[in-house]
Amino acid sequence: MSANEKGKLSASKETEKEKKSSQEKSQLSEIKFLIRSRIRLIPIWLRIVLLLFFMMLSTIFGILIGYGVIGDGDMIDALKSSTWQHIIDLVEKESEE
After folding, report:
1. Do residues 91 and 85 make contact, with C-beta atoms less than 8 angstroms apart?
2. Measured CA distances, 50 to 40, 43, 45, 53, 55 (Å)
3. pTM above 0.85, yes or no
4. What is the pLDDT of residue 73?
5. Are 78 and 67 in contact, with CB atoms under 8 Å apart?
6. What is the rounded CA–CA span in Å between residue 28 and residue 35?
7. DSSP state, 73?
8. Distance between alpha carbon 12 and the CA centroid of its chain, in Å?
9. What gap in Å lies between CA 2 and CA 9, rounded to an integer?
10. How far, in Å, CA of 8 to CA of 2, rounded?
11. For residues 68 and 80, what is the distance between their CA atoms, to the nearest angstrom?
12. Which of 60, 14, 88, 17 is nearest to 96 (CA)?
């Protein structure tokens, strides 16, 4: 082989490598795009609604357990308005003194 043919072969190999590397780069960019544009199973607005619902539910269960188990009262009494009015009256009476 002459030096000229060797140069052409090495030049063609370099262009093939460049093509492969550019193809790999484009494939990587497509993969990154697919990863970034992931479709959410649960939309954000529904997540917020579920979060608020579960916070309210846990608050109610906490009140029931706190009043019924820890406070030795009836758990159902914790949901009555008369119980809450009594609690408010106790707090307001202590703040007046």
Report:
1. no
2. 15, 11, 9, 5, 8
3. no
4. 86
5. yes
6. 11
7. S
8. 50
9. 11
10. 10
11. 13
12. 88
CA dihedral (46, 48, 52, 58) positive or negative: positive
- Give CA–CA dist 60/79, Å, rounded: 9
pLDDT, one tens digit per residue, over 9-64 is 566 766 777 777 777 777 777 777 666 667 788 999 999 999 999 999 999 999 99
Residue whose pair of structure tokens reads 């990587």 in the numeric block: 28
- Record the tokens describing residue 76, joined without a space: 């159902």
Give pLDDT, residue 45: 95
DSSP secondary-structure letter at 76? G
At position 76, the amino acid (one-letter code) is: I
CA distance 60 to 66: 10
78 and 63 in contact (C-beta within 8 Å)? yes
